[in-house]
Amino acid sequence: MTKTLLSFGHGYSAQALSALLPDDWRIIGTTRNEDKAAQLMSEGIEPRIWPGADLIPALNAATHLLISAGPTEQGDPVLTELRAEIEIRRDQFEWVGYLSTTGVYGDHDGGWVDETTPLTPSTKRGQMRVDAEAEWQSLDLPLHIFRLAGIYGPGRGPFAKVRNGTARRIIKQGQVFSRIHVEDIAQILAASIDQPNAGAIYNLCDDDPAPPEDVIAHAAELLGMPIPPAQDFETADMTPMARSFYAESKKVRNDRIKSELGIKLKYPDYRVGLAALLASDQQTR
Protein backbone atom coordinates (compact mmCIF):
# COMPACT_ATOMS: atom_id res chain seq x y z
CA MET A 1 0.00 0.00 0.00
CA THR A 2 1.32 3.45 -0.92
CA LYS A 3 2.23 5.60 2.05
CA THR A 4 0.50 8.97 1.79
CA LEU A 5 1.32 11.95 3.96
CA LEU A 6 -1.33 14.65 4.21
CA SER A 7 0.46 17.72 5.52
CA PHE A 8 -1.60 20.64 6.81
CA GLY A 9 0.29 23.91 6.45
CA HIS A 10 3.13 22.46 4.39
CA GLY A 11 5.83 24.95 5.32
CA TYR A 12 9.49 25.09 6.27
CA SER A 13 9.69 22.06 8.58
CA ALA A 14 7.29 19.91 6.55
CA GLN A 15 9.26 20.57 3.36
CA ALA A 16 12.44 19.44 5.09
CA LEU A 17 10.69 16.21 6.13
CA SER A 18 9.44 15.66 2.57
CA ALA A 19 13.02 15.67 1.33
CA LEU A 20 13.81 12.72 3.63
CA LEU A 21 10.83 10.51 2.86
CA PRO A 22 11.32 7.69 0.33
CA ASP A 23 10.52 8.45 -3.30
CA ASP A 24 7.53 6.11 -3.32
CA TRP A 25 5.66 8.22 -0.76
CA ARG A 26 2.78 10.36 -1.96
CA ILE A 27 2.80 13.75 -0.27
CA ILE A 28 -0.19 16.10 -0.30
CA GLY A 29 0.46 19.53 1.22
CA THR A 30 -1.91 22.37 1.95
CA THR A 31 -1.01 26.01 1.47
CA ARG A 32 -2.93 29.27 1.43
CA ASN A 33 -1.61 30.78 -1.80
CA GLU A 34 -1.08 29.96 -5.45
CA ASP A 35 2.61 30.93 -5.57
CA LYS A 36 3.44 28.52 -2.77
CA ALA A 37 1.34 25.84 -4.46
CA ALA A 38 3.45 26.18 -7.61
CA GLN A 39 6.62 25.87 -5.55
CA LEU A 40 5.33 22.72 -3.83
CA MET A 41 4.39 21.17 -7.15
CA SER A 42 7.92 21.77 -8.43
CA GLU A 43 9.18 19.79 -5.43
CA GLY A 44 6.96 16.81 -6.17
CA ILE A 45 4.30 17.72 -3.60
CA GLU A 46 0.61 17.64 -4.54
CA PRO A 47 -0.60 21.09 -3.42
CA ARG A 48 -4.07 21.91 -2.16
CA ILE A 49 -5.19 25.47 -1.56
CA TRP A 50 -6.76 25.28 1.88
CA PRO A 51 -8.97 26.52 3.39
CA GLY A 52 -11.03 26.19 0.24
CA ALA A 53 -10.18 22.87 -1.38
CA ASP A 54 -12.18 19.71 -0.77
CA LEU A 55 -9.79 17.61 1.33
CA ILE A 56 -11.98 14.52 1.63
CA PRO A 57 -10.21 12.65 -1.24
CA ALA A 58 -6.85 13.47 0.38
CA LEU A 59 -8.09 12.29 3.76
CA ASN A 60 -9.37 9.08 2.20
CA ALA A 61 -5.88 8.38 0.84
CA ALA A 62 -3.87 9.46 3.88
CA THR A 63 -1.94 6.97 5.97
CA HIS A 64 -0.04 9.70 7.84
CA LEU A 65 -1.05 13.21 8.96
CA LEU A 66 1.26 16.10 9.81
CA ILE A 67 -0.22 19.24 11.31
CA SER A 68 1.93 22.36 11.08
CA ALA A 69 -0.93 24.84 10.79
CA GLY A 70 -0.99 27.02 13.89
CA PRO A 71 -4.05 27.57 16.08
CA THR A 72 -6.14 30.72 16.09
CA GLU A 73 -8.40 32.24 18.72
CA GLN A 74 -11.13 30.02 17.23
CA GLY A 75 -9.07 26.90 17.94
CA ASP A 76 -7.14 24.47 15.77
CA PRO A 77 -8.09 25.19 12.13
CA VAL A 78 -7.80 21.56 11.02
CA LEU A 79 -10.10 20.25 13.74
CA THR A 80 -12.47 23.19 13.38
CA GLU A 81 -13.19 22.13 9.81
CA LEU A 82 -12.38 18.43 9.67
CA ARG A 83 -12.62 16.92 13.16
CA ALA A 84 -15.50 14.57 12.35
CA GLU A 85 -13.91 13.45 9.07
CA ILE A 86 -10.62 12.71 10.82
CA GLU A 87 -12.30 10.84 13.68
CA ILE A 88 -14.22 8.47 11.43
CA ARG A 89 -11.01 7.59 9.58
CA ARG A 90 -8.86 7.11 12.66
CA ASP A 91 -8.21 3.42 12.00
CA GLN A 92 -6.51 4.15 8.67
CA PHE A 93 -3.83 6.46 10.12
CA GLU A 94 -0.51 4.86 11.04
CA TRP A 95 0.95 8.07 12.46
CA VAL A 96 -0.27 11.56 13.27
CA GLY A 97 2.23 14.31 14.07
CA TYR A 98 1.40 17.68 15.61
CA LEU A 99 4.04 20.42 15.54
CA SER A 100 3.74 22.47 18.71
CA THR A 101 6.18 24.76 20.51
CA THR A 102 8.29 24.81 23.65
CA GLY A 103 6.34 27.99 24.43
CA VAL A 104 3.78 25.72 26.14
CA TYR A 105 6.13 25.51 29.15
CA GLY A 106 6.13 29.24 29.79
CA ASP A 107 8.84 31.08 31.71
CA HIS A 108 11.27 29.21 33.97
CA ASP A 109 13.78 31.97 34.73
CA GLY A 110 16.45 30.22 32.70
CA GLY A 111 15.84 26.83 34.35
CA TRP A 112 15.53 23.44 32.67
CA VAL A 113 12.30 21.90 31.37
CA ASP A 114 11.51 18.48 29.89
CA GLU A 115 8.43 16.75 28.46
CA THR A 116 7.02 16.13 31.95
CA THR A 117 7.18 19.79 33.00
CA PRO A 118 3.70 21.25 33.67
CA LEU A 119 2.34 23.48 30.92
CA THR A 120 2.21 27.06 32.20
CA PRO A 121 2.35 29.32 29.13
CA SER A 122 2.91 33.01 29.75
CA THR A 123 1.79 34.27 26.34
CA LYS A 124 -1.49 34.09 24.46
CA ARG A 125 0.23 32.20 21.63
CA GLY A 126 1.51 29.63 24.12
CA GLN A 127 -1.94 29.15 25.63
CA MET A 128 -3.47 28.59 22.19
CA ARG A 129 -0.88 25.86 21.60
CA VAL A 130 -1.71 24.22 24.93
CA ASP A 131 -5.39 24.23 23.98
CA ALA A 132 -4.64 22.83 20.51
CA GLU A 133 -2.48 20.03 21.94
CA ALA A 134 -5.31 19.08 24.30
CA GLU A 135 -7.84 19.14 21.48
CA TRP A 136 -5.75 16.74 19.39
CA GLN A 137 -5.10 14.54 22.43
CA SER A 138 -8.85 14.21 22.98
CA LEU A 139 -9.15 12.25 19.72
CA ASP A 140 -8.43 8.53 19.53
CA LEU A 141 -5.49 8.86 17.15
CA PRO A 142 -1.88 7.59 17.00
CA LEU A 143 -0.81 11.11 17.97
CA HIS A 144 2.78 12.31 18.42
CA ILE A 145 3.39 15.84 19.70
CA PHE A 146 6.62 17.63 18.78
CA ARG A 147 7.44 20.76 20.79
CA LEU A 148 9.80 22.83 18.66
CA ALA A 149 12.33 25.34 19.94
CA GLY A 150 13.36 28.32 17.80
CA ILE A 151 13.84 27.11 14.23
CA TYR A 152 16.73 28.11 12.01
CA GLY A 153 18.26 26.76 8.81
CA PRO A 154 18.76 27.72 5.16
CA GLY A 155 17.14 31.10 4.58
CA ARG A 156 16.49 31.47 8.31
CA GLY A 157 19.81 32.38 9.85
CA PRO A 158 21.18 35.63 11.31
CA PHE A 159 23.66 36.28 8.51
CA ALA A 160 21.47 38.49 6.32
CA LYS A 161 20.71 40.88 9.19
CA VAL A 162 24.35 40.97 10.25
CA ARG A 163 25.41 41.72 6.67
CA ASN A 164 22.89 44.52 6.14
CA GLY A 165 23.47 46.07 9.55
CA THR A 166 20.03 45.41 11.04
CA ALA A 167 21.09 42.70 13.49
CA ARG A 168 20.72 43.70 17.16
CA ARG A 169 22.18 42.18 20.30
CA ILE A 170 19.30 42.66 22.73
CA ILE A 171 20.58 42.12 26.26
CA LYS A 172 18.19 40.89 28.95
CA GLN A 173 19.86 39.56 32.06
CA GLY A 174 19.55 35.79 32.36
CA GLN A 175 17.75 35.39 29.01
CA VAL A 176 18.35 32.05 27.30
CA PHE A 177 16.67 30.28 24.37
CA SER A 178 16.80 26.81 22.90
CA ARG A 179 16.90 26.36 19.13
CA ILE A 180 16.81 23.60 16.50
CA HIS A 181 18.08 23.29 12.92
CA VAL A 182 15.34 22.42 10.43
CA GLU A 183 17.28 19.38 9.17
CA ASP A 184 17.25 17.97 12.70
CA ILE A 185 13.49 18.55 12.90
CA ALA A 186 13.15 16.55 9.69
CA GLN A 187 15.27 13.62 10.86
CA ILE A 188 13.37 13.45 14.17
CA LEU A 189 9.99 13.39 12.41
CA ALA A 190 11.23 10.72 9.99
CA ALA A 191 12.53 8.61 12.89
CA SER A 192 9.17 8.87 14.65
CA ILE A 193 7.35 7.80 11.49
CA ASP A 194 9.62 4.75 11.35
CA GLN A 195 9.07 4.03 15.06
CA PRO A 196 5.53 5.15 15.95
CA ASN A 197 4.78 5.47 19.65
CA ALA A 198 1.22 6.74 19.98
CA GLY A 199 0.86 9.31 22.71
CA ALA A 200 4.53 10.30 22.72
CA ILE A 201 5.65 13.88 23.27
CA TYR A 202 9.10 15.05 22.20
CA ASN A 203 11.06 18.25 22.70
CA LEU A 204 12.93 19.23 19.53
CA CYS A 205 15.96 21.32 20.37
CA ASP A 206 19.74 21.15 20.29
CA ASP A 207 22.15 20.52 23.17
CA ASP A 208 23.15 24.11 23.86
CA PRO A 209 20.57 26.66 25.03
CA ALA A 210 22.21 30.05 24.71
CA PRO A 211 21.58 33.78 25.07
CA PRO A 212 20.39 35.22 21.74
CA GLU A 213 23.08 37.91 21.75
CA ASP A 214 25.75 35.18 21.72
CA VAL A 215 24.32 33.76 18.49
CA ILE A 216 24.38 37.17 16.78
CA ALA A 217 27.93 37.81 17.96
CA HIS A 218 29.12 34.44 16.68
CA ALA A 219 27.47 35.03 13.30
CA ALA A 220 29.30 38.36 13.01
CA GLU A 221 32.58 36.71 13.94
CA LEU A 222 32.07 34.04 11.28
CA LEU A 223 31.48 36.77 8.70
CA GLY A 224 34.50 38.74 9.86
CA MET A 225 32.28 41.71 10.61
CA PRO A 226 32.02 43.94 13.70
CA ILE A 227 29.88 42.53 16.48
CA PRO A 228 26.63 44.56 16.59
CA PRO A 229 26.41 46.86 19.61
CA ALA A 230 24.49 45.72 22.67
CA GLN A 231 21.07 47.22 23.37
CA ASP A 232 19.33 46.98 26.71
CA PHE A 233 16.03 45.11 26.50
CA GLU A 234 14.19 47.62 28.67
CA THR A 235 14.96 50.58 26.40
CA ALA A 236 15.26 48.87 22.99
CA ASP A 237 12.74 49.86 20.32
CA MET A 238 10.94 46.56 19.64
CA THR A 239 7.57 45.50 18.29
CA PRO A 240 5.18 43.89 20.79
CA MET A 241 5.67 40.58 18.95
CA ALA A 242 9.47 40.76 19.19
CA ARG A 243 9.28 41.82 22.84
CA SER A 244 6.97 38.91 23.67
CA PHE A 245 9.68 36.41 22.73
CA TYR A 246 11.70 37.69 25.67
CA ALA A 247 8.84 37.04 28.11
CA GLU A 248 10.11 33.49 28.60
CA SER A 249 13.56 32.16 29.47
CA LYS A 250 14.26 28.44 29.75
CA LYS A 251 16.60 25.63 28.76
CA VAL A 252 14.89 22.68 27.08
CA ARG A 253 16.04 19.09 27.53
CA ASN A 254 16.11 16.78 24.50
CA ASP A 255 17.02 13.42 26.08
CA ARG A 256 13.87 11.68 24.85
CA ILE A 257 14.57 12.08 21.13
CA LYS A 258 17.92 10.39 21.75
CA SER A 259 16.80 7.58 24.05
CA GLU A 260 13.54 6.69 22.27
CA LEU A 261 14.31 7.55 18.64
CA GLY A 262 18.08 7.06 18.56
CA ILE A 263 18.68 10.56 17.26
CA LYS A 264 22.18 11.90 16.77
CA LEU A 265 21.79 15.59 16.07
CA LYS A 266 23.46 16.86 12.91
CA TYR A 267 23.74 20.30 14.49
CA PRO A 268 24.10 19.83 18.28
CA ASP A 269 24.74 23.53 18.88
CA TYR A 270 24.39 26.85 17.09
CA ARG A 271 28.11 27.08 16.31
CA VAL A 272 28.00 23.91 14.21
CA GLY A 273 24.72 24.97 12.64
CA LEU A 274 25.86 28.48 11.72
CA ALA A 275 29.14 27.22 10.27
CA ALA A 276 27.22 24.82 8.02
CA LEU A 277 24.77 27.54 6.98
CA LEU A 278 27.57 29.90 6.08
CA ALA A 279 29.41 27.24 4.08
CA SER A 280 26.23 26.45 2.15
CA ASP A 281 25.47 30.13 1.67
CA GLN A 282 28.92 30.80 0.24
CA GLN A 283 28.53 27.93 -2.23
CA THR A 284 25.32 29.42 -3.62
CA ARG A 285 26.37 33.09 -3.69
Automatic annotation (TrEMBL):
Claim: NAD is one of the keywords in the record: yes
SUPFAM superfamilies found in the cross-reference section: NAD(P)-binding Rossmann-fold domains
Keywords: NAD
InterPro entries: NAD(P)-bd_dom_sf (IPR036291)
Record CDD domains: SDR_a4
Protein name: NAD dependent epimerase/dehydratase family protein
Organism: Octadecabacter ascidiaceicola
